[in-house]
């Protein structure tokens, strides 16, 4: 991995080292001694040889990024800082100017209603990124869009509420999807519970099957096996199935029945 890789992936190397950068002047305060100090501090928890946690793959990625951050900031800091200002600080600076103009009531350059709305939307998008632990990749284009798959028309009947043992790998959506496939449960993650941060030992995630038949297959499989994977504490339908069950047959209205009757003499017309 190199400087080019960091740019392509839009990596915040300062954040990887636990160094807070608020503006361009903050970049000049970061010295090689500070970089090495932060690297040594984080190595105590992220180095593969010093970690006893089971999430070795995630830890390895974090360790690789930590090494990359130290290497680039020690050897290519000037070039990285020039790119960093364009990628991360420009939009932040522009937003700050607008907020300052509102605060001072600058009549010479008043902020319009539409600009204020844009600032509010910007703040909302950042709060969403923070909540979902997503990387702020580009301050110049803060548009936040949630991609949804509209192929499943039976969303509620195909949704499960799953309680898992709290592991770092399960907090990563792609990793969790792979894990479900590995244990032969064909579902995909829809969203995580907002209360997971307050849960110490477990987490709740909502997953969806592709269609109703897949839901039936999953339930039959779980019923026949009699037990779940040890990391799955609960696996229940998100919506109680009694709301979709009918215990009694309802006779069709005779008038409606006669209208639906189809014959050569009494065809159905639309």
From TrEMBL:
Listed InterPro entries: DnaJ_domain, J_dom_sf
SUPFAM superfamilies linked: Chaperone J-domain (SSF46565)
Residue stretches making up the J domain: 12-84
Protein name as catalogued: WGS project CCBQ000000000 data, contig MAT
